[in-house]
Amino acid sequence: MIESVLVANRGEIARRIIRTAKRLGIRAVAVYSEADAELPFVLEADEAVLIGPANPAESYRNTQAILDAAKKTGARAIHPGYGFLSENAGFAEAVTEAGLVWVGPSAEAITAMGDKINARNLMQAAGVPVAPGTTDPAHSIESALEAAEEIGYPVMVKAAAGGGGMGMAVAADEVALREQHERVRSFAERMFGDGSVLIERYFPRVRHIEVQILGLADGRVVALGERECSVQRRNQKLVEESPSPALTATQRAALLEAAVRAGEAVGYRNAGTVECLFDPTTGEFFFLEMNTRLQVEHPVTEAVFGIDLVEAQFRVASGLPVEVPTESSGHAIEFRVNAEDPKRFLPGPGPINTWVEPTGLDGVRVDSGYTAGNVVTPNYDSLMAKLIVFGVSREEALQRAQAAVAAFQIAGPKHNLPFFAELLSNEEFLSGEYDTALVSRMR
C-alpha cells in the first residue's frame, strides 16, 4: 500500500479521501487555495500546503504548484478526486513522469474517453450500444444540418470535449440547429479549447443511468451495480439512487455487461463510470460517456455494496487485490446539498452562520466540505455536502430521507434543502417512474 498521498482537490471530496487515507494509515497531504484556508479538509490533513490564490487556474488547476507540493512534503501518490485536473491526461502523465503514483486510470484511457465522438466510436466497435449520431465532428453548420437530416429532429448538440452537463443544447428544427450549433461550438472553444461538435438523437423522455466500474490490478474489469441519476437541473445531477427503480433484472444484466465491455475496450484500471441513456418506453439503453474518475455520487454504491471505493482506488493504484462484493442489498439515495436557491437553482454563496447535520438517525451519512463559521465563496462549485440515506427498501430509504432533510439545518448561504423536501413529496419521484425532465415539470 502507498504510504502517503497528496489530495489534489478541495471541499467534501478532499475531506472524504483524507478520511479513508487516515483509516488505512496513509499520510494525507492537502493542498489549498487562499480562499479555503479555514475549511475542514485543510485542518484534518496530516500536512497542508498553500498553493495559490482563489482562482483555480492558479491553485487547483496549477500542475506545477501541485507537483512542487508533493515534492516538498514527500508525498508518494496523488489522488485527484473529481473535477479540476481529475480527467486531465496531461496532469496524469506529469504525475507519473515525476515518479509518483497516479490514483486513477491511465492517461491513455483518459484521452480515449475524453472526446465524446472518439468514445462513441470506440464503444460502438466494442459492441456497446450508442445512440444514432455523428462519427466525425460536425465542424460546419452544413455538416450538422446533413447529420440532423439523417438522424431526424429533434437532435442534441454537444461539445465533444465537454463534461459535467456543460456544452449541450436541443435543436427541434433547422432554425434552432443553426443557432445552437454556433452557440455550442463557441462555448466549447472558450471552455474546453476544442470547438468540435457532436450531433446525436435527442430523446424527449429518457432516464440517465450509470454503472460503477472498477478496473483491477490483475486486468479484470468488474461492475458494481448502477445508479439512477435522472433528477437533474440544466443537465446536472441533483439526486442519485441505487439500484435504479426503472430496470428489470434482464435490463440490468445487459447494462452491466455492456459497461464491463466498455472498460475492457480501453484497458481500464481504477474507478470509473459508464453513463448511459435509458429509454423507458422501449427498454433500450445507449452509451453516453465514460467518466474516468471517482464520481460525486459514489457513496450510494458504497452503501448498497458495502465497499469503500476510495480504499479500492488506493489498492488498485498500489497493485494490490480488491475484495469485490458480488451482491448488493438495500437501497441508497444521495442528495447534493448546494449553495443555490431552491427555485431557480442560481448560486447563493456566503458565510455559514448555522450548520447542523442530521445525527442520530438510522441509515444517514453526510459527506460535508463545510461547517459553521466557514464561507462558501463564488470561486468554486456550489456543492457544500452530500446527504446519503440507506434503507432495506426504497420505501424505507425515502422515509429516512424525509427525516434527514428536515433535520439538516443551514443558515447563511442559500441552499436547496427546501427543494429536496418538495421532491420527497412529489408523487412522480416517489413512484420511481420519473425521467430527466422531472425537475422542469416541478418548476
TrEMBL record:
Protein name: biotin carboxylase
Domain ATP-grasp, chain residue ranges per copy: 120-318
Species this protein is from: Rhizocola hellebori
Alphabetical list of Pfam families matching this protein: Biotin_carb_C, Biotin_carb_N, CPSase_L_D2
Lineage: Bacteria, Bacillati, Actinomycetota, Actinomycetes, Micromonosporales
Organism domain of life: Bacteria
EC number: 6.3.4.14
Top EC group: ligase
Domain Biotin carboxylation: 1-443
Molecular function terms from GO: ATP binding; biotin carboxylase activity; metal ion binding
Keywords: ATP-binding, Biotin, Ligase, Nucleotide-binding
Cross-referenced PANTHER family: CARBOXYLASE:PYRUVATE/ACETYL-COA/PROPIONYL-COA CARBOXYLASE, METHYLCROTONOYL-COA CARBOXYLASE SUBUNIT ALPHA, MITOCHONDRIAL-RELATED
InterPro entries given in the database record: ATP-grasp (IPR011761), BC-like_N (IPR005481), Biotin_carboxylase_complex (IPR050856), Biotin_carboxylation_dom (IPR011764), Biotin_COase_C (IPR005482), CPAse_ATP-bd (IPR005479), PreATP-grasp_dom_sf (IPR016185), Rudment_hybrid_motif (IPR011054)
